Amino acid sequence: MTIVRVEPGGGTRGPDTETVTLTEAVGEAVTEAEERAEVPGALPEALAGFVGYLLRRVFARFAASSDGPEDDSREFLVLDALTGGDWASQLDLAERLGINRTLMVGVVDRLEGRGQVRRTRNPDNRRQYILSLTDEGRSAVEAGRRAVAERDARLTAALAPEQVPRLNTLLARLLPPGAQDLVRGTGHLVAQAHHRLRRLGDEKLAGTGLRVRHYGPLSLLATSGPCPQQRLAQELAISGPATSQLVDELVAGGMVNRGRDPHDRRRHALELTELGHTQLKRVAEAVGVLAAETAELLGPGGEDELRALLGRLLEPAHPGAAEAAATTRRD
Q1: N vs C: which end of the chain shows fewer Cβ within 10 Å?
Q2: What is the pLDDT of residues 289-324, one digit of tens each?
Q3: Any long-range contacts for 233-237 (C-beta under 8 Å, 24+ apart)?
Q4: Using one digit for the tens of pLDDT, what is the confidence trace for 245-265?
Q5: How many CB atoms lie within 10 A of CB 50?
Q6: What residues contact 278, with CB distance under 8 A and at least 6 apart?
Q7: What span, in angstroms and rounded, lies between the C-alpha atoms of 41 and 297?
Q8: DSSP per-residue letters across 183-236
């Protein structure tokens, strides 16, 4: 199978693995940009009981504290995974690490360009390339591990020393079995666990026009609408541009109307349409199923424990998060 990397001008290039589209890469970038657009503030009470929601907020906080772009994190994950030996399939490694297949092409391109990874034709399958770590790659891994350890120490400073390995153990349970031994470091585990839960949730909504991220604004508008967009942003504790993007999606999908604020006719107010109420039930059902599956992955007592630990990590930016996470229960 041939990877075709779609260039802006319509040309293609790239090593063997699989056909990909520019749309996938753009969609991934839009989602990541939205998830990083968090602002300090009280967390919505209706959402604070969900591990997936708290994990998203921790991911956003960690991303905001990052010393470099997300691409650097992906490159380290690939290099670190290759320390255990050669990998026979680039696509398989991408799936194990939860990296979008389009983005994986660019990651390996850059690593190969720097001489840190070598691609050779797989003699058992001429359509695939074997990924191998070079000496330059091994040196990069050693430096990367030191940087990861230092960053993780800063990000988890709110936890007691014995709580950090426990947090890592719980986060690893949210990864596919084949990835649990490949991902190291709290920051990387948070990112991988978050991305996996997001994908699992969105898969349950395939064909509906909904995403898991729509649950928050829909549920808040159901209880607080009609509601000015600025107030919705405050209640979600996300930036104005991120709120605008969410609202535009919901309006385009016929789930939300922009009407007039009954308390101030100069302002617009958002309210759910009849379709919005119907779609809220659908997304709420998917979120509930995802929450149940998450609890099963974490094992007895694991959900409450992880929720409390994530709440502690959020406390500096979201006062009261630890208490909310520890006491809030889903219906």
Answers
A1: C
A2: 999 999 999 999 999 999 999 999 998 777 777 777
A3: 234/41, 235/44, 236/44, 237/38, 237/39, 237/40, 237/41, 237/42, 237/43, 237/44, 237/318
A4: 999 999 999 999 988 666 665
A5: 24
A6: none
A7: 30
A8: --SHHHHHHHHHHHHHHHHHHHTTTTT--GGGHHHHHHHHHH-SB-HHHHHHHH
